[in-house]
Amino acid sequence: MNLWQKISANLHFAMIWPAALLFAVFFIVPFFSGVGISLTNWNGFGAPKWIGLQNFFDFFKDERALHALYITVLFGLISPILMNVFGLLYALLLDCGLRFSSLVRAIVYSPAVISSLIMGYIWLLIIKPETGALHQILTSLGLGQFYPDLLSDGSKAIWAIIVVNSWQYIGGSMIVYLAGLQTIPQELREASVVDGCGPISGFFKITLPLLIPSVKINLILNLIGCFSVFDIIMALTSGGPGYSTESLSIFIYRMCYGSSTGYSTAVALILFVVILIPVLFSTWTLKKKEVDM
């Protein structure tokens, strides 16, 4: 072969290099740099001092860090469940030929295109104690004493944040499930009806098994997003009252800019593992349940 033929035959290898270079520069190099920093007591300014795994040991002795881990896990497990359950219900409803389905789809999906930070501030204006719109409306109706103060109590605030976040991103899950429902052949559904399957049994025997790829996509995206939650908490409570709703992402941010760069990097690696475990587990579990059409 001449030179041009050799280049043409190997052109697909050359096309990999730009993406591989970007991946190395923006992921591989920072990741291993972070591993190195996590083994030091660097404060972000002076020369780092090697301390080995001390930062990781300190994490499991730090009550504030462990509480942030609890909030992260609670948020990362509950919110994806709500998003997937209600997203699937909306998709099934719209797939049934509901009137004005395009309008309903647009209304449900529209919050997902708004920044989490902006959405958090919008809901803060609604549910904020004393000055929030909900409190003002109840007060004007003489029902101010029934206002549920959702943000001043940490045990209530985290559930309020979970509901707001789930409500915002239900539309994203709905769109993925709608796309999955449209790939299911109508013949299979008709055959299930002929075989005596009702709506519920048909859903669990036909529809849900064929939706496993959509479930996997939604679950992985939602797990990653919810375990790394930052914006919505900062907008609604800033991690408060105190540190009662502080997630690991917020904890890392505050430690990093609090002259504990080495420690915050170690916590970031722990968060990486915390996210990786449920993602790999859900991928492995759902992979076994996939069926071919």
Helix content: over 70%
The counted number of beta strands is: 0
Order of helices and strands: HHHHHHHHHHHHHH
Head-to-tail CA distance between termini = 44 Å
Estimated radius of gyration: 24 Å
Integer average pLDDT: 88
Number of helices: 14
The poorly predicted ranges are: none
Q: What structural category characterises the helix and strand content?
A: mainly alpha
Q: Globular, elongated, flat, extended or rod-shaped: what is the shape?
A: flat
Quick one: biggest sheet?
Answer: none
Strand share of the residues?
under 5%
The quaternary state of the protein chains shown equals single chain
Question: Could you provide a short overview of the structure?
Answer:
With 293 residues, this protein is mainly α. It is 72% helix and 0% strand. Helix 2 (11-38) packs across helix 14.
Report on this model:
This protein has 293 residues and is mainly α. The chain contains 14 helices and no strands.
Chart the SSEs and their pairings.
Blueprint: H1 3-9, H2 11-38, H3 54-59, H4 63-95, H5 101-109, H6 116-127, H7 133-140, H8 154-182, H9 186-194, H10 199-210, H11 212-227, H12 231-236, H13 248-256, H14 261-287
Helix pairs in contact: 2-14, 4-8, 4-11, 4-13, 5-8, 8-11, 9-10, 11-14, 13-14
